[in-house]
Each structure stands twice: as structure tokens, then as C-alpha cells.
């Protein structure tokens, strides 16, 4: 049976930080808009800042639906599910904000990600929890974690900041979402840190 929490206590924080993958869900305000659900991974790309706040790195490589929805209305849900012996699902419903490279907060936030940062980082998504809950994961299958894929980091690691900015500008759904909402501000501000 599920339970609501006032915040992410030590047990929940540990569970969240141990999961190798999580999912984000966002949607535009328009009833006919596209709901977005994205898998997120790469070790170290999510940090719990405090009992009610998380942040994760938003990388280039696909569209920018999450950024567009967050800019429009801030609604987001993050979900972690255990594929090992603990049949648990944790959800954080919250309000999110995209912090871009030219934001004065970028330097402090990006520093929280240490080795996970890379040239493909285009924003930090900061999530303030409004509702924290868990539920059983009895129907979630057992799966074995074999390790990190390094293809994304290697691909963007070969690009200069200028090449990455040009890459972002060429992608169809980066400056605007599939529903025409403003997404990643272009041209992409250069990295200063």
C-alpha cells in the first residue's frame, strides 16, 4: 500500500540516489498537447539538494519537450522504480524550473554534478517537491543492471562548445516543442564553467 511523505527522508533519498534510471513526465496546458515521458540515466546526473528539492542535468541528444513544458507551466513528475529485490516505486510530483547556462545560478548548480557534467549539458532542471509518495512495485519485473552506457558522453565529449551549440540549432524540436512551445533558448549560451 502506498504512503505519502512530508519530504524525502534519508531512506527515500537513499532509494532515489541508488536507482540507475528514473523517468520524468510533463505535459503542456493545452488539452490536445503531447504528454512527454522521458527516461533519464547516467550516473551522477541527479542530485537531491535538500528534503524537498532535486536537480538533474538536461542533456542534448533529443528534443526539448521537458524544457518546453516546464517553461510553460512548471508541472513535473519524477518516478523511480526498483528492478531488484525491493518492490518499490517512488514518485515526486512537483514544480520545476529550467536553469540555463547564462543563469547566475548555473555555476553553483552545475558544480553539484562533478564528473557527470559534460559538454552536452544544456540545462539543469530543478524540481521542488509538492507531493512525495511510494507504492508497491510488485508488478515491476526483476532486471539486472549491467552498467552505464558511455555512448552519449563519448559522442558529446568529442564536440566543442561551438559544435554542440550548432548541433542544438539544427535539431527540429529543440528551440520549440512538438506543440510549438518555446523550449531551449537559442542560440545556446556558451559554457562559462
Structural class: alpha+beta
CATH class division: Mainly Beta
- Architecture in CATH? Roll
The CATH homologous superfamily is named Electron Transport, Fmn-binding Protein, Chain A
The low-pLDDT segments are: none
Give the count of helical stretches.
5
Outline, from the CA principal axes? globular
Radius of gyration: 17 Å
Distance between the termini: 45 Å
CATH topology: Pnp Oxidase, Chain A
- The helix/strand order is EHEEEEHEEHEHH
Mean pLDDT: 93
Largest sheet at a glance?
8 strands, antiparallel
| % residues in beta strands | 25-35%
Domain count: the total is 1
- What percent of residues adopt helix (DSSP H or I)? 10-25%
User: Care to count the β-strands?
Assistant: 8
Task: Please describe what this structure looks like.
There is one protein chain. This protein has 193 residues and is an alpha+beta fold. The protein has a single domain, classed as Electron Transport, Fmn-binding Protein, Chain A (Pnp Oxidase, Chain A). It contains five helices and eight strands; from the N terminus they run E-H-E-E-E-E-H-E-E-H-E-H-H. Strands 1, 2, 3, 4, 5, 6, 7 and 8 form an eight-stranded antiparallel beta sheet that branches. Strand 4 and strand 5 form a beta hairpin. It is globular, with a radius of gyration of 17 Å. The model has no long low-confidence stretch (mean pLDDT 93).
Amino acid at each position: 500500500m502506498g504512503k505519502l511523505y512530508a519530504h524525502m527522508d534519508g531512506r527515500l533519498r537513499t532509494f532515489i540516489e541508488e536507482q540507475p534510471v528514473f523517468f520524468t513526465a510533463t505535459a503542456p496546458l493545452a488539452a490536445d498537447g503531447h504528454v512527454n515521458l522521458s527516461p533519464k540515466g547516467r550516473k551522477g546526473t541527479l542530485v537531491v539538494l535538500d528534503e524537498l528539492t532535486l536537480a538533474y542535468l538536461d542533456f542534448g541528444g533529443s528534443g526539448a519537450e521537458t524544457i518546453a513544458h516546464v517553461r510553460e507551466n512548471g508541472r513535473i513528475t519524477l518516478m523511480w522504480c526498483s528492478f531488484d529485490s525491493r518492490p518499490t516505486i517512488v514518485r515526486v510530483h512537483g514544480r520545476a524550473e529550467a536553469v540555463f547556462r547564462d543563469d547566475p545560478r548555473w555555476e553553483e548548480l552545475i558544480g553539484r554534478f562533478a564528473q557527470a557534467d559534460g559538454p552536452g549539458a544544456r540545462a539543469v532542471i530543478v524540481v521542488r517537491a509538492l507531493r512525495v509518495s511510494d507504492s508497491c512495485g510488485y508488478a515491476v519485473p526483476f532486471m539486472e543492471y549491467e552498467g552505464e552506457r558511455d555512448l552519449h558522453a563519448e559522442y558529446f565529449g568529442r564536440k566543442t562548445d561551438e559544435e554542440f551549440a550548432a548541433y542544438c540549432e539544427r535539431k527540429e524540436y529543440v528551440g520549440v516543442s512538438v506543440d510549438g512551445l518555446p523550449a531551449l533558448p537559442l542560440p545556446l549560451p556558451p559554457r562559462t564553467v
